[in-house]
Write a structure and sequence with these properties.
Number of domains: 1
Helix content: 25-40%
Number of strands: 11
Distance between the termini: 36 Å
Strand content: 15-25%
Shape: globular
CATH superfamily: 4'-phosphopantetheinyl transferase domain
Strand order of the largest sheet: 4-5-1-11
Length: 255
């Protein structure tokens, strides 16, 4: 397992983007967008995405969904040198989205997560990836929720933290577990208590153990991501990551 690099510099992406083995691109997206930008992004969505957006009761949630999925299309379109609206998606048996092979023969793995006003998109070539971001919410009953969803060793590590660090530890654990589940592509069929991750603040993100196959943990890399203050985020990737690029998404530099 590789050591984590806790420091990320979010940069403007180059004009030409491509996918290489053992390289992962992470995109940071602001979802606080103008009405004009939201309408532009909405025009690139499929009928299914528009239907899903319309299900949200609150307009703020609907706008964040449109922003996140519209930006996802814009990001992926840069790798395929196409228009965002031309991309077609399919869904795996456990709900993981993928680029429809009818759209392109190039293999690409990607993952989307959004919380609050921030979205993250992970993109890799032929390497399974999962990303998760969560806004750290104060006042939650972290130990109570942890006992429901975390493994016994994770609960013990959380309770051993000083009380002022438990909320960050809780969200570290949550995002790392979610990122791993997303990368695996098994959805909720992979029990949260079937694997252990590290969670203590200021310590590396590690996939400590996997059950029932203890060898599975060696196949994966976990990375802690610094996004913004008040957020926790993590990346899970199959195999090693020799290069991790951190890009800031800006609609104005879209190809």
């Amino acid at each position: 397992m590789e050591k984590n690099n806790p420091h990320h510099t979010w940069l403007r992406p180059p004009d030409d983007l491509d996918l290489h083995a053992h390289r992962v691109d992470i995109w940071r997206v602001s979802l606080d967008l103008s009405t004009e930008t939201l309408r532009f992004l909405e025009s690139s969505l499929s009928a299914d995405e528009l239907h899903r957006a319309a299900r949200f009761h609150f307009s703020s949630d609907r706008d964040r969904f449109i922003a996140a999925h519209g930006c996802l299309r814009g990001i992926l379109a840069r790798y395929f040198h196409s228009e965002p609206g031309q991309l077609s998606f399919s869904t795996g048996s456990h709900g993981k989205p993928a680029i429809d092979l009818a759209s392109s023969e190039r293999g690409v793995e990607f993952s989307l997560s959004h919380s609050g006003d921030v979205a993250l998109v992970a993109v890799a070539g032929e390497q399974k990836v999962g990303v998760d971001v969560e806004r750290i919410r104060q006042g939650i009953s972290a130990p109570v929720i942890a006992r429901q969803y975390f493994s016994k060793s994770e609960v013990a590590e959380l309770l051993a933290l000083p009380s002022e660090h438990r909320e960050v530890g809780f969200f570290n654990c949550w995002t790392r577990k979610e990122a791993y589940i997303k990368a695996q592509g098994f959805g909720l069929s992979l029990p949260l208590e079937s694997f252990d991750v590290s969670l203590s603040p200021n310590e590396p993100a590690i996939l400590r153990a996997t059950r029932p196959d203890p060898e599975e943990s060696a196949r994966w890399t976990l990375q802690h991501l610094n996004v913004y203050p008040g957020y926790a985020a993590a990346l899970a990737s199959e195999g090693s990551v020799k290069m991790l690029n951190s890009w800031d998404w800006d609609l104005r530099v879209q190809s």
